[in-house]
Structures are given as structure tokens and as C-alpha cells.
């Protein structure tokens, strides 16, 4: 689904954030990028939707080489959940979720139905929440809306960059459970960044451990436990 071929990333200031990585992320899997702060996880994630350019190498999504020409079209197929909760404060929950469907010119009724379906999916009662403003929701609830928004137009790929890091431990645990049930309900390819090994073990079908911009190990949670 997503293939990195000899991909490197150097920032304009000379920092080499990612060094010659090769990766094959399979369709429908929950793929976790883990490693200490500064090891290149976010850079790797952002190269997938070209929020960061690639310095060397090639990236393929569904066998299509990602280039400056087709990235705008490809981005429609990639949902993105950020670390910071990033809802538009002046818009209602429903309006926040509707952003991408509206850009895609979906019919009003279809959007309405989709909003209610998504709120239900992430555990928020549509009647109670759709017309509220983000500030009337807790951090955990806002982040659930962030997940709903990323899923809105049903993209096959969802990128998540430490989506729980701004949350208190309880909300974090609840949202983790939500993501677990979500990944069973919807067939999507998830790429998930965290520095928390237990989170990686709980959520990941496969885990990719990075260090200093390089890949140390890729494997299932079981394979990580077995490694001495
Ligand atoms: P996040 O992980 O929240 O997406 P950033 O991508 O903003 O964070 O930054 C990740 C790391 O890169 C941080 O350690 C930050 O200090 C560093 N960083 C971000 N921007 C720059 C920059 N322009 N120059 C040097 N280091 C940077
Ligand atoms: P992680 O997500 O694992 O914390 P990052 O991918 O954010 O790591 O960062 C990898 C390396 O690239 C770090 O050394 C970081 O400081 C550097 N870096 C990140 N963003 C920038 C930037 N915009 N400019 C320069 N260096 C950056």
C-alpha cells in the first residue's frame, strides 16, 4: 500500500532526519512507527502525504509513484490526525467533520448522514454533539472528533501522529480502546506514530523501531517480545 524505496530526508539546515529507509506498509494493517524523540518518526509520516518533501529515493502509494504532480489527488486518499487537537474553534463539530466531504462536493444529505455515522463510530452521540463548538468538548472528545474528521471521506490510509499525547491518562486509555474497536470495524491502512512501547504493542499489527533516522527492526508485537 505504501512503499519507501531508499528514502532519505535532509532538512535545509543540513539535519539528516531519515537515512535511506526501505519499508513496505501493507494494505489494511495497523503500522506503528516507534522510537525516541528525534529519531525521524514524524518526518517519515509526513513524507507519506508530502507535508515534508523527500530528498532522495521514491515513495509509492498503491503502486503509484508519489510526485509533485499527483500529490494533491493522492492526499484526498489520506486522512491525517495530528498530535495537537486541531479543530476549527469557530465551527461546530458537524462543520469540522464536513470539511473534506464539502470540498469533494458531496450532497448535503449524504454529508449529514455521514456526520452522524462518524460521531457514533467514535463514541459521541450525534444529537448531543453535532451542533456544539469544540470548546464545549473535553480534550478526549475533541480528539475523537479529530479522528472522525480524518475518516470523513473514507480514505484508505489514515496517518496519526501521537494523537493521544495531549490527553490525560484516562482519556488516553479510552481513546486507545476506541482505536482498537475502530480498526476492527473499518478496513484501513493506519500508520501511527508513538514513543510509547506499550501503546505500540497494544495497537500495532506491525511495529517499526527507528533510531537516528534509521530502521532498527520491523516486526509483529510477538516478534518484539521474543527478541532478547
Ligand atoms: P512534532 O513531533 O510535534 O510534529 P515537529 O515536527 O515540529 O514536532 O518537530 C520535531 C522535532 O524537530 C523537534 O525536536 C523540534 O525541535 C525539531 N524541529 C522542528 N523544526 C525544526 C527546525 N526548523 N529546525 C531544527 N529542528 C526542528
Ligand atoms: P521524531 O518524530 O521521531 O521525534 P522528527 O522526525 O520530528 O523525529 O525529527 C527527526 C530529526 O529531524 C530530529 O533531529 C529533528 O530535530 C530534525 N528536524 C525535524 N524537523 C526539522 C526541521 N523542520 N528542520 C530541521 N530539522 C528538523
Automatic annotation (TrEMBL):
Q: Which GO terms describe its molecular function?
A: ABC-type quaternary ammonium compound transporting activity; ATP binding; ATP hydrolysis activity
- Alphabetical keyword list: ATP-binding, Nucleotide-binding, Transport
Keyword ATP-binding (UniProt):
yes
| UniProt EC number | 7.6.2.9
Source organism (scientific name): Priestia aryabhattai
ATP-binding listed as a keyword = yes
Show the stretches that span the lipid bilayer: none
Q: Which reaction does it catalyse?
A: a quaternary ammonium(out) + ATP + H2O = a quaternary ammonium(in) + ADP + phosphate + H(+)
Q: Domain of life, per the record?
A: Bacteria
Report what the protein is called. Carnitine transport ATP-binding protein OpuCA
Q: ABC transporter domain spans which residues?
A: 2-228
Question: Which EC class, in a word?
Answer: translocase
Recall the taxonomic lineage recorded for the source organism: Bacteria, Bacillati, Bacillota, Bacilli, Bacillales
> Which family does the entry's similarity section mention?
Belongs to the ABC transporter superfamily.
How it assembles, according to the record, is: The complex is composed of two ATP-binding proteins (OpuCA), two transmembrane proteins (OpuCB and OpuCD) and a solute-binding protein (OpuCC).
Amino acid at each position: 500500500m505504501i512503499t519507501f524505496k531508499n528514502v532519505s530526508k535532509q532538512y535545509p539546515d543540513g539535519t539528516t532526519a531519515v537515512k535511506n529507509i526501505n519499508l513496505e506498509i501493507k494494505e489494511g494493517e495497523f503500522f506503528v512507527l516507534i522510537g525516541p524523540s528525534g529519531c525521524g518518526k514524524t518526518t517519515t509520516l509526513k513524507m507519506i502525504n508530502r507535508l515534508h518533501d523527500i530528498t532522495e529515493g521514491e515513495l509509492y502509494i498503491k503502486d503509484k509513484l508519489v510526485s509533485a504532480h499527483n500529490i494533491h489527488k493522492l492526499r484526498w486518499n489520506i486522512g491525517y490526525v495530528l498530535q495537537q487537537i486541531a479543530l476549527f474553534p469557530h465551527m461546530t463539530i458537524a462543520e469540522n467533520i464536513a470539511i473534506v466531504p464539502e470540498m469533494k462536493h458531496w450532497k448535503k444529505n449524504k454529508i449529514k448522514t455521514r456526520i452522524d455515522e462518524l460521531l457514533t463510530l467514535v463514541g459521541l452521540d450525534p444529537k448531543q454533539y453535532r451542533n456544539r463548538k469544540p470548546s464545549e468538548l473535553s480534550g478526549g472528545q475533541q480528539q475523537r472528533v479529530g479522528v472522525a474528521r480524518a475518516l470523513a471521506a473514507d480514505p484508505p490510509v489514515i496517518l496519526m501522529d501521537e494523537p493521544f499525547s495531549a490527553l490525560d491518562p484516562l482519556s488516553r486509555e479510552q481513546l486507545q480502546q476506541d482505536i482498537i474497536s475502530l480498526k476492527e470495524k473499518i478496513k484501513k491502512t493506519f500508520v501511527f506514530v508513538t514513543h510509547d512501547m506499550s501503546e505500540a504493542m497494544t495497537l500495532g499489527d506491525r511495529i517499526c523501531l527507528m533510531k537516528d533516522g534509521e530502521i532498527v527492526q520491523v516486526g509483529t508485537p510477538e516478534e518484539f517480545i521474543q527478541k532478547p
